[in-house]
Amino acid sequence: MVRVAISGVMGRMGRTIAKLGYEDRDVEIVAGIESPDCAHSHDTVGELIGVKELKSPITSDISEVIDLLDVLIEFSNSPEAVLSHARLLAADKNKKGMVIGTTGLSDGDIKELEELSKDFPVVFAPNMSIGVNLLFKLVEEAAKALKDKGFDIEVVEMHHRFKKDAPSGTAVKIVDILKKATGIEKVVYGRQGDYPEGRPSDEIGVFALRGGDVVGDHTVIFAGLGERVELTHKAGSRDIFARGAIEAAKWVKDKPAGLYDMMDVLGLR
Ligand code: NAD
Q1: Please, what's the b/e burial string for 89-106 (b: 16 or more CB within 10 A of its CB; e: otherwise)?
Q2: What confidence tens digit (pLDDT) does each residue in 95-122 have?
Q3: The pLDDT of residue 138
Q4: What is the CATH number of the domain that holds 227?
Q5: Active-site residue (options: 95, 163, 253, 255)
Q6: Is there a contact between 128 and 101 (Cβ–Cβ < 8 Å)?
Q7: Does residue 116 sit in the same domain as residue 162?
Q8: Residue 34 C-alpha to ligand 1 middle, in angstroms?
Q9: Range of 218's domain?
Q10: Does ligand 1 lie within 6 Å of residue 10's CB atom?
Q11: Ligand 1 test: best mutation among 17, 40, 76, 80, most atoms within 8 Å of CB?
Q12: Is there a catalytic annotation at residue 159?
């Protein structure tokens, strides 16, 4: 059993983690942390997610509940909150764990986190989906195995019509993995124009499709002459990030101090 507090509990991810955590018999939700502006609109996490018997308090001061928790799951949208919570946990003699899903941390924030994590165990991953992290690993393996064997690499992603950035952060990470594994540097986005010599082999193509309510699909195609390998991940809902965070919380409890990511949680190193 892991006793979990959720920071950013009133946010989209925080509520989802609270609901899924409550349904998980290996997880006890012991508290919610919120910004001082929001913390008092609900007294308990149960009230927030419509479960009367869940009486865990919501507070803006983590030190009030620090003794209750084994692991803090951090999904606030505030890098300052992430760092202030990490400083407190690093200084705590009981070596609680922390799972950080919050994005937008600066290089300086990450450096400080690396320093602090010498004193307590932290999982930090901007994409907590179990499947996406497995996809990263499979893409790396496939790219290494097929390197210099005549396979062209194309990355195709599709997201809903409201998405603000293209290509997705996950596609960008996939391209980074491919570049490292193959040594190919050139990346072509949305290919267009004349190719009298055909497709150059020393480039990676990236295509961002947008439409409807697609949560997030990513496919990496390795195309050779006469055969093709395709690796695909399809996200059906944001629950996958919450489930990944809960798995990470179970994993990080009682781990030695250090900075880990989802590859460690999934045993993919
Ligand atoms: P959201 O805006 O719905 O929720 C954020 C919550 O954090 C809000 O309730 C806000 O009041 C709260 N908050 C602000 N300051 C706080 C503080 N000082 N202490 C505690 N709580 C505070 O956002 P969201 O969609 O739930 O996403 C939250 C974060 O998680 C974002 O950074 C987002 O990019 C990231 N995210 C990561 C993953 C992943 O897999 N790692 C997946 C989805 C979202």
Answers
A1: bbeeeeebbbbbbbeebe
A2: 999 999 988 888 899 999 999 999 999 9
A3: 97
A4: 3.30.360.10
A5: 163
A6: yes
A7: no
A8: 10
A9: 130-235
A10: yes
A11: 76
A12: yes
